[in-house]
Amino acid sequence: MIKICLDAGHYGKYNQSPCNKKYFESEAMWKLTEYLKEELLTYKGVHVITTRKDQAKDLALYNRGQRAKGYDLFISEHSNAVGSRVDNNADYVVVYRSYKNNADDLGLKLAKAVANTMGTKQNPRTSTRKSEKGDWEYYGVLRGADDAGCPLFYIVENSFHTNPISTTWLLDDSNLKKLAQAQAKAIAAYYNLKVIPTLPAKAITPE
User: Fold this and answer.
1) What is the pTM assigned to this prediction?
2) Contact predicate 103/109, CB 8 Å
3) pLDDT by residue (tens digit) across 71-111?
4) Which of 3, 16, 29, 182 is deepest in the core (most CB within 10 A)?
């Protein structure tokens, strides 16, 4: 059994795009997280939870990461930004991973899967960020997951909502579903998961 904890970045109406006022990072990433949960549950031996049940309610970053206690994988979904201005140049996927362990393999698989699906202009990548003293994870959700003992934990930045092309792409629900499918396939390949077979509908023989 592979146990996965999914986290939608932010809540309510948070991080509005300067490119398109219809886009809020919090709303798009909530949808993506729910779609990803659905996709992951099509594989055998997978158990999935989300850190929050209500999109409109907040939960502290560290506490969200702590929900990964006893889980094998934690993923927090986000879209990136270059300040609060429109930027036509920044268009890449970055996955933040732990600086402590060999988490780059799955991290890069996820980054490439997102980049290939979105068609971003710049190369996908992974990155790490330590605290100022370099003794713990900088990002609260990752620090929480780390302290909870989760072995693999990531923040997936699905390109930039300060980029007009990426913002328009992320506003389309059908694209979010494609993104969820791509991420689920990358996770399935890493853990060697198999799709649950579907039984054909029983044919009714006319009398």
Assistant:
1) 0.94
2) no
3) 999 999 999 999 999 999 999 999 999 998 779 999 999 99
4) 29
Report phi then psi at 171, rounded to 5.
-80, -15
Residue 173 CB neighbour total at 10 angstroms: 12
What are phi and psi for residue 168, nearest 5 degrees? Answer: -60, -40
Tokens of 24: 């809020």
| Alpha carbon distance 115, 81 (integer Å) | 16
Q: Cα–Cα distances in Å, from 141 out to 57, 132, 168?
A: 16, 17, 27
**Strands 94-96 and 73-80, sheet pairing:** unpaired
Task: Give the whole-angstrom CA distance, residue 120 versus residue 23.
Answer: 18
Q: How many other C-beta atoms lie within 10 A of the C-beta of residue 56?
A: 10
Please tell me the distance from the alpha carbon of residue 26 to that of residue 79, in angstroms, as a whole number.
9
What 8-state DSSP symbol labels residue 4?
Answer: E
Closest by Cα among 164, 140, 142 to 75: 142
